[in-house]
Write a structure and sequence with these properties.
- Two copies of one chain form a homodimer.
- Chain A has 14 helices and four strands.
- Chain A is mainly α.
């Protein structure tokens, strides 16, 4: 995944990382002014954000390019906002799951609990760690919006993208709640696990980032500096090309996103902790109702479940690729989506 | 506070409540589509939002009016977004503090823990309750942004308001972290408690809502439908009238916001639970380092601390009122700010 293929991933990662660094530099000045203690929060955020694979920004970027948007720093900054959203979800997820590690480092709540211990502060260190992580996740969620609007994209673009960003946030948080409730109520069928995966992973990781890039590009195409055509001010308006492309992105995004999550399940159960950044079998130990765990329960053997899971991944990647093969996009965007499909489901994690 | 004075509070509350209801109705359709379980989240949010005093929306509305903005449903919808932000903070605060009640009802995490118990679900019910409340607070935080942008205010207004909303979110979350860290590290002086109050309450409850209304009105005043003056596209630009008014709002907002919090501290320690919605002395029991608790510690008697706290409130309300008496605003806005100062610090809670 380090080589520079048609999806331009190394450069996208580099520029998304730079947009995040610039944003955090500005926040550091603000937070230091509020109180010296805030620097500890910013340090934790900086460390966490350094580790992301930038998959969601890459899909957002290619949704933009596929509709004819030109490469520019502004779309990469807007895409980078999705890394803040994702980091927020991870920090809160780790509190809820009581996870110890994330991206090869202590989870944020553990980091702050350790600080509490080291300083011999009063009260239980776990409570302090959880509280700090809840607030840091909140900061990251609020900053998603801030970076999106400060990306420098034209107002018309942002206005068209906003409803997609709104849907994306509601869907991923809802998916997390359905997961939590399903785990508690004990519904552990493959079918119910797949329903959670659609909202918590598939729409959120692939479909919505592509839709966001598309909506931003469609909005930007209406932009005429110094003048806005009143006929194009309704963000609900879609031209036929956009509607067709949005449908193709759904056809690509949902199966690919499910395949991405299935790969993540496999890596969580069988992967190399040095690569995945989390201990093997955390999911099983925590009683997580992943599709793989549900399969293993239904099939009675891990090896059988693994084989079936690999088949499910293959089938979905092929389905994803066939959904975009007739889409009205450039050959370059087509090649990029093919590379991203491989990157998102690669065995190396 | 129920009478219709110059601040028009009963009507503002009514319309803010209606904007929230409309927003929640739209979300209910969406959430039901994602999964039937999501309705439980929406019900909890609806019940929580029904109880708010709408103080922040009222300040936002009067910031708008003071700069010459006309009364319209759009400014009330944008103001209502602040109720979602505040509800998010309350839900997460209650998880962190382990509070049992909020606005006279079980706190959200307790409500979901009770549901877990009632359904005899698996795992610890407290963990489920905390997880659900973290996610519900996240939804409310994400929806703040969504309602703000869906308020129907002109794009130019929203663009000018955005940086104020950004600052407000960062400040209140930072204030909460400073509070948490201060409580853990044990700094319990009146001075350090006051520093937390400035960010967690004063700027957040009074100054920033006024600034937000002002920035929205200033942006809207640049709006010329179908045409944007390129000279007015920089949201950082402030006209001299706005700068003067922003300074007056700071002079009014900071002392009044501190007085508001001091009143809240007093009500928390001595108030009527039927009116405050939370049990008396929760703050003391939880080892909260409120200004009043710090005063009680320094003064050695509750009665002395209470008397001094009342003096601090009086002094700050007078300071607040004198800060706006020469501000370039209408007589109606001036009277409204005077009424709001009383409403925010009234002994009845």
């Amino acid at each position: 995944m380090a080589s520079s293929g048609p999806a331009d991933l190394p450069r996208i990662r580099d520029q998304v990382g730079r947009a995040l660094d610039d944003f955090l530099d500005r926040q550091r000045v603000l937070l230091s002014g509020i109180g010296g203690d805030m620097v500890a929060c910013l340090d934790a955020i900086t460390d966490l954000l350094a580790g992301g694979k930038r998959l969601r920004p890459a899909f957002c970027y290619w949704g933009w390019r596929a509709f004819g948007g030109q490469d520019c720093p502004q779309i990469l900054a807007a895409s980078a906002a999705l890394e803040l959203l994702h980091a927020s979800a991870l920090v809160h997820d780790d509190v809820m799951d009581g996870s110890d590690t994330r991206r090869g480092q202590p989870a944020v709540h553990r980091r702050f609990a350790a600080r509490h211990d080291a300083e011999s502060w009063r009260g239980p260190s776990e409570g302090f760690g959880a509280g700090a992580a809840i607030l840091i996740g909140d900061l990251l969620l609020a900053w998603t919006d801030e970076l999106f609007h400060a990306s420098g994209l034209p107002q018309a673009a942002l206005r068209h993208g906003q409803p997609v960003l709104d849907a994306m946030r509601t869907e991923v948080i809802s998916g997390q709640y359905l997961d939590l409730a399903g785990q508690a109520s004990g519904s552990t069928t493959v079918a119910s696990a797949l329903r959670v995966v659609v909202y918590k992973a598939a729409k959120y990781t692939v479909e919505r980032p592509l839709h966001l890039g598309l909506a931003l590009a469609e909005g930007a195409s209406h932009q005429d500096p110094g003048h806005q055509d009143p006929g194009h001010q309704d963000p609900g308006h879609q031209d036929p090309g956009q509607a067709r492309l949005a449908a193709a992105f759904t056809g690509y995004g949902i199966p690919l996103g499910v395949a991405f999550q299935l790969r993540d399940d496999i890596l969580g159960m069988f992967g190399d902790p040095a690569q995945t950044g989390k201990p093997v079998s955390d999911d099983v130990r925590e009683g997580k109702r992943t599709v793989l765990v549900a399969l293993a329960r239904e099939r009675a053997s891990r090896a059988e479940a693994l084989a079936e899971c690999e088949l499910m991944i293959d089938k979905r990647v092929r389905e994803a690729l066939s959904a975009v093969q007739d889409a009205p996009i450039t050959a370059q965007a087509m090649s990029a989506l093919a590379e991203l499909a491989v990157a998102a489901t690669a065995r190396c994690g």
